[in-house]
Specification:
Layout (H helix, E strand, L loop, with lengths): L4 E5 L2 E7 L2 H8 L8 E10 L5 E4 L3 E5 L4 E3 L3 H9 L2 H8 L10 H10 L12 H11 L3 H19 L3 E4 L4 E9 L4 E10 L4 E8 L4
C-alpha cells in the first residue's frame, strides 16, 4: 500500500490520508476546515480469508497528549457543514457548495490497485441545492434543501460501518474535527469469522 499512514495484518491492508486544504478543494470543491471538518481518506483491501467489520464510530484521532477524538457520524458532519459559511452560501444560492468528485475512486484505485466500486460517482451538491432552492421559497426551505443535498452526497463517500470481504477493496472518508493535531488513529477491527476484536494504532502522517 502506497499510503504513508498504513497498517497490515492477517491479509488486511489499511491506508489513511489526511486531506490537505488543496486536496479538499480538488476533491470536494471547497476547503471543509472552515466548517470544523477535516476529511481523512480510508482505503481497506482484504487479501486474507476472513471478513472484517470496521465502524467509523470505533475510529479515533489520537493526539500527542493521548486525547481521543471520535470520527463524526454522518449527521454530525452534515450539521457542521450546513451551519458553516459554506452551508449558508449554499442555502442563499451565493455559492455552488461542495463537489464530490470522481477523483475519490481514481485515487483509491491508484493507491492499492483493485476495484473500489462507484463511490466516486458523486455529483455537485450545489447543483442539487440550486435546483431545490429555486423551487422553494424562504430561507428555511433553502436551508432544508441544503442539508438534504449535503447528506445525499456525503453519504456516497462516508465510511460509516462496513464489512470488508476477502478479495474486496473498500474506500471512503472519515470526517474528523479540524484544528486538532492528530498524530495517530486508533481503529477497532472486528474479525467476523473468529469473532475477535483487535485495536490497532496507525501513525497519521501529514503532508
Amino acid at each position: 500500500m502506497s499510503y504513508a499512514s498504513s497498517h497490515e495484518q492477517d491479509g488486511l491492508q489499511l491506508g489513511f490520508e489526511k486531506m490537505s486544504p488543496k486536496q479538499q478543494v480538488e476533491q470536494f470543491g471547497v476547503d471543509l476546515t472552515s466548517a470544523e471538518v477535516v476529511p481523512i481518506r480510508i482505503v481497506v483491501r482484504n487479501d486474507g480469508k476472513d471478513e472484517f467489520y470496521i465502524q467509523a464510530g470505533q475510529i479515533f484521532g489520537l493526539t500527542h497528549s493521548k486525547d481521543l477524538y471520535p470520527a463524526y457520524r454522518l449527521d454530525q458532519a452534515v450539521d457542521r457543514i450546513r451551519h458553516s459559511q459554506i452551508g449558508d452560501a449554499m442555502a442563499t444560492g451565493a455559492a455552488t457548495g461542495l463537489l464530490v468528485g470522481a477523483v475519490v475512486g481514481a485515487a483509491a484505485g491508484a493507491a492499492i490497485g483493485g476495484s473500489v466500486g462507484d463511490a466516486g460517482q458523486g455529483a455537485a451538491i450545489g447543483a442539487a441545492t440550486g435546483g431545490a432552492s429555486t423551487a422553494l421559497t424562504g430561507a428555511a426551505s433553502g436551508a432544508d434543501a441544503s442539508s438534504r443535498a449535503i447528506k445525499k452526497e456525503l453519504r456516497k463517500v462516508d465510511w460509516g460501518d462496513r464489512v470488508v470481504y476477502p478479495g474486496h477493496t473498500e474506500q471512503g472518508f472519515l470526517f474528523m474535527k479540524s484544528g486538532v493535531q492528530y498524530n495517530a488513529l486508533e481503529v477497532l477491527l472486528y474479525n467476523v469469522n473468529k469473532r475477535k476484536n483487535t485495536r490497532i494504532t496507525v501513525s497519521l502522517v501529514s503532508k
